[in-house]
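Deliverable D5.2: sample structural annotation.
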Amino acid sequence: MQTKTPRRGTIRLTRRGRIALIATGAVAAVTAVAVPLLLPDDSGGPESLTVPEGWRTSQVYGAVDKALGVPAGTTKKALPKAHLKLPRDARGNPEGYLFPATYPINDKSTPESVLSYMVNTAAKKFSGSQVTAGADRNAVNIYQTVTIASVIEAEAGSKADMGKVARVIYNRLEQGMPLQMDSTINYALNRSTLNTRDRDTKINSPYNTYTRMGLPPTPIGNPGEAAMRAATSPAQGDWLYFVTVKPGDTRFTSNFEEHQKHVAEFNKNKSENS
């Protein structure tokens, strides 16, 4: 996340460094929840499919295709036949509800059954009393909470930062400020990058949170439990801005001038490392 600066050509830090690995499918560290699928045992034991936190539906579809050994695009085409139990607000789009976990796979698994298990798992995780209480407390519904969690998942440099990122989102919403989250632009452009330029912030898209107010129309990925906890119980603070100056060093502030200094430090580090 970064606000637009008056200087030309500045580069913005967008998402956690891990996203570069996700883009190539080489995720360095994944926290996955083992989900029993009640599949029959076989002599060799089922293979498994791991969905990392933050993956988009397109990435999940591709991973399911590969795990099941079916032609590329099969899982996406199977979506209408899966009859997924999604909330009405989702309008048939499972983005945000393909819950990150490790799923056993065997020869009886189909794209429809795997997607159903993911969505059913998400429904169980997201329907708990804590999630509901948190969503009510922050004046957003469950679907909006999942959307916020997906942005947190994409923007936070670490799990420790998630609560603060959540607070920035809520503070901006409450003050009528655009979210200005670069991760939503990445989603609109179907890319994963650490850099966003001024021209990117001018794209015509409902996911452009620089030019449009409020939340993006859907989640921008599939958040895990830590991001959901942050979305329902954000940290306390008055922060409105943040930027990851370097790995492990994310600066939060409510002061725009201070934020600009942090951005300048990021740009300097970026230039020196180029």
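Annotation notes: The longest strand covers residues 241-246. Residues 256-273 form the longest helix (18 residues).
The annotation will be released with the project's public dataset once the embargo ends.
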